[in-house]
Amino acid sequence: MIGELLPQTVVTVEAYGNDDADTPLYPEEAALVTRAVAKRRREFAVVRSCARRAMDKLGVPPQPILPGERGAPRWPAGLAGSMTHCDGYCAAALVRATDLASLGIDAEVHGPLPEGVLAAVSLPAEAERLRRLAAQRPDVHWDRLLFSAKESVYKAWFPLTGLWLDFAEADIEISADPGERRGTFRATLLVPGPRVGERRLGHFDGRWTAERGLVGTAIAVPHD
Question: CA dist 138 to 36, 119, 193, 220, Å?
């Protein structure tokens, strides 16, 4: 699912349901989830299994994936990547840092957001656009899609800046392909964007899909 949203230079590995449920952790990883509930431990392990399989496809020896600042995964030198997990699905996407400046992926169960969450994560203009989309295409939970897109934006933003990005600091406009539950989105940054090479980014462009009971979003940030 996620792999369809990213350039061919990106290696994506996914796991559905109980795939890789018994995957082992490195000791230093296991120490981070000793007190976590079983579901959290399983997702933590499976998403790292996905990431190590992606490393292997890129010719990088498998190794521990430990959280760094603000919980962002610390990738081996020369790689950029992103991970996501939700109920029944885990995925990791990795790319050589020479091919992309950054990337961000997110997956969510395709259902409405809990009461009050949309108001907390959306700008008034975004909420109005979602209402119009819902009237045209009620088969998509646009509120959940917006939430997922904002998560992907943050995951792409943080490795480039090392800074927090609030939900209200990116204005996302979503477009749907005619007759399809997929499309694109643009996140206009409402704060000074990161520098990539000689340019300062003012927005991120991403792609989305809704399939198999999930919503997936992805952003790939090129070097130029």
Answer: 37, 19, 33, 28
Give 177-195 pLDDT, tens digit per residue: 988 999 999 999 999 999 9
CB 203 within 8 A of CB 172: no
Residues with Cβ within 8 Å of 69's Cβ and at least 6 positions away in sequence, in order, are: 162
Instruction: State the burial class of residue 137 (Cβ atoms within 10 Å of its Cβ: 0-12, 13-18, 19+).
Output: middle
pLDDT band with cut points at 50, 70 and 90 for residue 22: confident
Closest CA to 10 of 207, 161, 164, 199: 207
Q: Are 206 and 84 in contact (CB under 8 A)?
A: no
Q: Are 47 and 86 in contact (CB under 8 A)?
A: no
Q: Which of 93, 74, 96 is nearest to 84 (CA)?
A: 93
pLDDT in tens, 125-139: 999 999 999 999 999
Q: How far apart are the first and last CA of the chain?
A: 26
Q: What pLDDT score does 161 carry? A: 96
Angle between helices 124-136 and 142-161 (to 10 degrees): 140
CA atoms within 13 A on the CB side of 48: 26
* Cβ pair 17, 99 in contact under 8 A: no
Q: What pLDDT sits at residue 157? A: 97
CA distance 92 to 97: 15
Greatest CA separation found in the chain?
50
